[in-house]
Amino acid sequence: MMVNIPFQKDYAEAYDFLYQDKNYESECDLIEEIFRKFASAKIRTILDLGCGTGSHAIPLAQRGYRVTGVDLAEDMLQQARLKAHSLPTGQLAFLLEDLRRLSLPDQYDAVLMMFAVLGYSTTNEDILAALNSVSRHLKPGGLFICDVWYGPAVLRQRPEAKEKTIRTGQSEIIRNASGTLDIFRHLCEVRYRLRHLQDGQVLQEAEERHIMRYFFPQELAFFIRQAAMEQIHISSFEDLARSPAEDTWNVLVAARRL
Fold it and tell me: Where does the Methyltransferase domain lie (predicted)?
């Protein structure tokens, strides 16, 4: 059965296996490079919105930052807490909350939305709600960092059907993905089929539908400004010195709280 709410139990348990080739430490290096380049004061506290299984939050906490991770998927947070069990109390906390409605008592030096989290806000109203949440949780002059799907590249490259196989001991996880575009609403519907096999027999099978918003540069800068922030950087995700282009599906964006 196709599930419309993403990151349910089966997908959450397979998530870190599926992305074991993703270099989170290198991405944290990029985050720190932006801190060094644009921060007006030392970054000590970080709010990670849409933290998932904690693959950015945990290494950042290990680097000495005090991190709060927020996610709407309890099954993803369960994986994050298991991975973070050895960290000192007070260094890292995980909260089950809707980031659009989040209201925490603290403000932070930096707020993150990594791995296209902003794209899960699919309407203009939800995007503004998410960005206003970022803004109210940032100290004046604080930094916001996110990555998003870049509209010109999405329209040029188009989503393709893909299959990924991960072997884990005697079993394997197979994920099939296919996508369709809604050009008028700037959306991509991605359908995932996940199978967990052992000795050729299917042990578990799940399907999920993820609706993702992709962004164009001027609308993104406009949304950010509406949330009392100023966009100060946009680049290829992998290379801060490279401008976005039609071959850069993911772009990295930084903004400062006004």
Answer: 46-142
Q: Write the Ramachandran bin of 186: left for phi over 0, alpha for psi from -120 to 50, otherwise beta.
A: left
Q: What is the pLDDT of residues 59-103, one digit of tens each?
A: 999 999 999 999 999 999 999 999 999 998 899 999 999 999 999
Q: Are residues 106 and 177 in the same domain?
A: no
Integer angstrom CA distances of residue 233 from 122, 189, 206: 23, 28, 38
Indicate whether 1 pLDDT > 70. no
Taken as a whole, the chain contains a residue count of 258
Helix (H, G, I), strand (E, B) or coil at 11: helix
Specify which residues 207 forms β-bridges with. 2, 193
Question: How many Å apart are CA 54 and CA 56, to the nearest integer?
Answer: 5
Q: Which of 38, 44, 40, 36 is nearest to 68 (CA)?
A: 44
CATH code, domain with 115: 3.40.50.150
Range of the domain at 205: 154-212
